[in-house]
Amino acid sequence: MRRIPIGPVIGLAAVAALLVGLAALLGLGVAGWVVGLTAGLGVTGALAGGLLRQGVVTLGPADRVTLTRAVLACGVAALVADSFGRPAPVGMLIALTVPAVVLDAVDGRVARSTDTVSSLGARFDMEVDAFLILALSVHVAPRLGWWVLAIGAARYVLAVAGWVAPWLRGTVPTRRWRKGVAALQAITLTLAATEVLPVSWSRALLVVALALLALSFATQAVALWRGRSPETRTVADHWVISVLAGLLVWGALVAPATLTDLRPAAFLRVPIEGLVGAALVLVLRGRAQRWLAALVGVGLAVLGIVRLLDLGFQAALYRPFNPVTDWTYAGSAVDLLGHSVGRGWALGAALGVGLLVIGLLVLLPLAVGHVARLIDVHRPSAIRVVAALTAVWVVSAGLGLQVAPDTPIASASTASLASSEVSRVRASLHDQQVFARGLTVDPRQDAAGSDLLTGLRGKDVIVVFVESYGEVAVRDSSVVSAALDATTQQLGAAGYAGRSAWLTSPTFGGVSWLAHATLQSGLWIDSQQRYDQLVASHRFTLSDAFGRAGWRTVSVDPANHGPWPEGTSFYHFDQLYGGDDLGYRGPSFGYASPPDQYTLSAFDRLELQHPSAAGSASGSASGNPSGSPAGNPSGSPADRPAVMAQIDLISSHVPWAPLPQLVDWNTLGDGSGYSFIRAHATSQEDVWRSTAGVREAYDQSIAYSLGSIASFVQHSASDDLVLVVLGDHQPARLVSGDDASHRVPITIIARDPAVLARTDGWGWGAGIRPAPDGPVWPMDRFRDQFLSAFGPAAGAP
């Protein structure tokens, strides 16, 4: 009769005891219990199975240490699972993780000192390492980026690959540096989990750790490939690998950097970089040749990643990827996908991108090394091929031969890409210095509150950004044209008129906060680098001007569900309203939670109808020398100052489906009535089946936003509003087209004719529809023009 191993039973009991302790101290939730117990059963069950297969019933000293680490790892996994429903107890998480990481250096020494080293113990140690790393990567991924999951998933991806390629299941000799790389993953993830380092530092450390992990797995895969049994080594294998390696390297050298050039003909070119590399391989020997292959492989992998990012940025933002400033958009992209298509799909996409990056970093160096060995082994044939292709390249370059229009046979695209990336990096670093100097020059910085915005005293001023409201909507859409006509009639009936023109936005297709910062600061903010520099400065903004002149300043951003420190530290808004602050209890519509009409209604209720919300008037602290408010609009509560608000309307945000509809203003309530509209709206799946469907949905979303603004003006508690309505950027190229401008409409709407008279010198057209040939200003010009026009004397443009 076989005895039952007692060690795994004790381990499972220890896991249960640990979970009980965590529940008593922290109140462990259902998710924590389920994951903790499941992990405990899995770890101890696998250990018991391994012991029984080897006919062993007792654990050695080193195995007991590893089992202790496994128990702690199960506790970590339970806390991580619990953290998705409430804030993670970082202190307890670190208290469990640090001993588990430290003991990783102990069990191996114990095994060697007691002469109890075994294959089972080594495998047990490796699997506990992998499980702890997976748990930690899941914990830090929401804060640092979902690509971090690639670190935790790497071991399990290799295991799945072993089902397809059995040779990957083999073992390789232990290498100390591989053990060090595995330990580094746990150490860097633990350090990231403590949150003691800035996010950028943590990301940088994890990028290095991931690169080393990829290199570790690559060398392991190569060793396993070379160590296959003779029965599995065939000539066909060699030729298949050689052809695949050659195609991968060739594709990396000639792949285009734009979607419009992505066609089969682009891969029929002769890359000069490949010919130079092959010639160097023929010249060099031994270690120098291997180092060359490794460096070229890594360089091609990095450029391949940049090419992919360029394709994505060109499609979404109409510009190439900037290697200095654009890494920070990763988190925003995942959040955007999560709001648009669901968190599960967003996580899957992030994981897929992470695996693709790892694949390039692993496969391209291996492919280059394989091709280099082929060249070295078959030198005479390689010399003839290189010479022939060089002749083809020289003749094609001299005669300008092409395989397709704008696709020359003689390719130097990789060298050109590398050169442009280096130039872009140098330009970004130079721009950082130039922009820093420009931040210190602002003649309006010390303007007195009594001299600011005198032409708007007594008015509630609302700056409304309509998401993706671009030139393409005004010029090319009959739906939006009808909406503009209807809005003009509704505003006219309420006594309002408008003046309109065009602004050139610093961004395209997304990254709206760059447009907001440009309009507010009077500086051209076209990159995240400039934005970060700006919000760390004391630049005078429009909201500063209104606050200093006595207005109560408010920001309403229904897409914001977290802290926004820049709102108070830089823009100095008196009140910030995010999506969770508007009282909305209805369904979500695509990206947007509260529909635009509800957002405007909530602002009206919270600020324009609610005197207590404005209890802290700006007074002398804001720069108003008299300490008196800016004035009280007609029809507004008598005990509140005038309000200046920046409001973001996001119903017109991609994916433009499902869309809300306008409802009776008096029936909005808490938004729960939108459930019926949501249930009968056209689904995102139906809309995105064709480009025409997407364009139609975009037009309808803009029409809805314009209708919401007209409804707000008609029903607002303030009957003397001044609105500045503008777009933040053009929609993505799918809607805007390949040759779209950066122009967005802007309209000033007011009831008081004296307000619009202040803009007579601007040359703007009457109405809320900009004329096709109307004035076009860069968006950074608006701040100074606005402050001049509405200062003590109307300024000329």
Task: Provide structural commentary.
With 797 residues, this protein is an alpha/beta fold. The protein contains 28 helices and 13 strands. The strands form three sheets. Strands 5, 6, 7, 8, 9, 10, 11, 12 and 13 form a nine-stranded mixed sheet that branches. Helix 5 crosses helix 6 and helix 10 packs antiparallel against helix 14. The longest helix is centred in the middle third of the chain and has 35 residues, at 343-377. The chain is globular and about 90 Å long. The model is unreliable at 612-629 and 631-637 (pLDDT under 50).
Q: Mind telling me the C-alpha Rg?
A: 32 Å
Percentage of helical residues? 55-70%
Q: Report, as a whole number of angstroms, the end-to-end distance.
A: 97 Å
SS class: alpha/beta
Tally of strands: 13
On the 0 to 100 scale, the average pLDDT is 83
Number of helices: 28
How much of the sequence lies in strands comes to 5-15%
* Quaternary: single chain
Ranges where pLDDT stays below 50 over 5 or more residues in a row are 612-629, 631-637
Instruction: Please tell me what the overall shape is.
Output: globular
Main pleated sheet? 9 strands, mixed
